[in-house]
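Lecture notes, part 5. Sequence design as translation. It can be helpful to think of inverse folding as translation between two languages: the language of shapes and the language of residues. The source text, in structure tokens, appears below.
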């Protein structure tokens, strides 16, 4: 093999940022190219025009003016032939794990930052070739083995690698070195710098800082005075400096949340209860899967006119129980929301997360006696859902009127089946 040391810095690092292009749509195209390849497609949380939002769309759709976050109704006006696809997160996780495994074959220093992107530190991967050769081979393998396009940024740090991966899409490979920062970035507006949102960019404009170049030249003391410790980061970012390492150890979640936009507005706690119970059950299950407990809970409510409020509270003790979470969010709803005001979205977020094995959970005598049975039941229910799907076990409170009617029609058969499955799962859990 050729001597590739000349392509690596004598000191410092070589970082790749791998960004899958239009990931959800690309996965569906890879699964069913005859139906979707080269066509204007969009994955939407719901195909109902009232609540539907475009989660992502294909590049063919983007060329027609469709964009992420656009309402489905508007997207269909722009492109009546747009193909709408319901999300399939099980399928997305399958493809995400597959492309991560390909990337991992080049270095163990892989940091997954979302389902469709990761950083690789390839400083010690000289045996696979130059950085450009590694990026090219990685991109080719992901396309040949999975049918997925991706863009890759090559840089001496994570910040510049992330920016570089956005320079050529789809299917591009870009190199961004520190010496390239003035010519490539400094004339761009501040909000095009990764990590600078619209609110921060607006505050910078009020300070007379409009471009990344002006940010790079700004007085750091002044920036710290207006932005706190973030001011120092802004100064470094403007100059393309980033000291963050590629961390292969996944950080513990800071929060776990789930929201749902409702097909019809709900009014009052009675109508909201089954939705809140579903949300509490989902976040509690994710909590248990990670071996965590939550010390606080946040309720999110959005009105039909898109106004959003959040209300948080501490729990009496850290918990992993959907029952405790459900009780808390119902209390929040009753205390902070008038019964005659309609709601279009509800969300439950768990906060103050700690490892269950490290948490000091205080129980009264009644809870102490019930706790082993509750944990056994939770394990059994989680096992059933892992094996048979989310709807394998439903509590009475989760059922809508239509579900309840179907349950009554099949009460004897359904009860018998659920008991058999639950007893089997409890035996497995034990």
């Amino acid at each position: 093999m050729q001597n590739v040391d000349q392509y690596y810095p004598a000191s410092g690092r070589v970082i790749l940022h791998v960004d899958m292009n239009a990931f959800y749509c690309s996965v569906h195209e890879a699964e069913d190219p005859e139906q979707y390849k080269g066509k204007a497609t969009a994955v939407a949380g719901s195909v109902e025009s009232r609540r539907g939002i475009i989660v992502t769309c294909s590049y063919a759709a983007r060329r027609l003016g469709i964009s992420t976050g656009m309402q489905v109704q508007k997207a269909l006006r722009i492109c009546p032939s747009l193909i709408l696809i319901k999300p399939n997160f099980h399928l997305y996780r399958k493809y995400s794990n597959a492309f991560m495994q390909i990337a991992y074959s080049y270095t163990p220093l892989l940091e997954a930052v979302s389902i469709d992107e990761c950083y690789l530190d390839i400083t010690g991967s000289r045996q696979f070739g130059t950085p450009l050769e590694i990026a090219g081979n990685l991109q080719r393998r992901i396309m040949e083995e999975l049918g997925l396009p991706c863009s890759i940024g090559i840089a001496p740090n994570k910040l510049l690698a992330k920016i570089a991966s956005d320079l050529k899409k789809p299917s591009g490979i870009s190199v961004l070195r520190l010496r390239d920062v003035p010519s490539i970035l400094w004339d761009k507006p501040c909000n095009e710098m990764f990590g600078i949102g619209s609110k921060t960019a607006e505050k910078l404009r009020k300070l007379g800082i409009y471009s990344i170049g002006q940010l790079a030249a700004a007085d750091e003391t002044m920036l710290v005075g207006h932005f706190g410790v973030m001011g120092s980061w802004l100064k470094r970012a403007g100059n393309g400096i980033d000291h963050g390492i590629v961390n292969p150890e996944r950080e513990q979640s800071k929060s776990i949340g789930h929201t749902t936009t409702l097909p019809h507005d709900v009014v009052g706690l009675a109508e909201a209860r089954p939705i809140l119970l579903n949300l509490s059950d989902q976040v509690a299950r994710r909590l248990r899967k990670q071996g965590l407990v939550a010390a606080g809970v946040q309720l999110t409510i959005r009105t039909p006119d898109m106004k959003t409020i959040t209300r948080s509270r501490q729990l009496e003790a850290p918990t992993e129980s959907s029952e405790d979470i459900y009780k808390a969010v119902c209390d929040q709803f009753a205390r902070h929301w008038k019964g005659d005001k309609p709601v279009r979205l509800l969300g439950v977020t768990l906060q103050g997360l700690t490892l269950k094995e490290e948490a000091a959970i205080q129980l009264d005598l009644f809870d102490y006696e019930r706790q082993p049975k509750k944990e056994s039941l939770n394990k059994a229910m989680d096992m059933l859902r892992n094996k048979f799907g989310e709807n394998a076990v439903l509590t009475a409170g989760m059922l809508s009127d239509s579900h309840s009617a179907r349950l009554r029609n099949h009460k004897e058969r359904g009860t018998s089946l659920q008991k058999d499955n639950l007893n089997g799962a409890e035996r497995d859990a034990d």
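The translated text above is only one of many valid answers, since several sequences can fold into similar shapes. The first strand starts at residue 15 and ends at 20.
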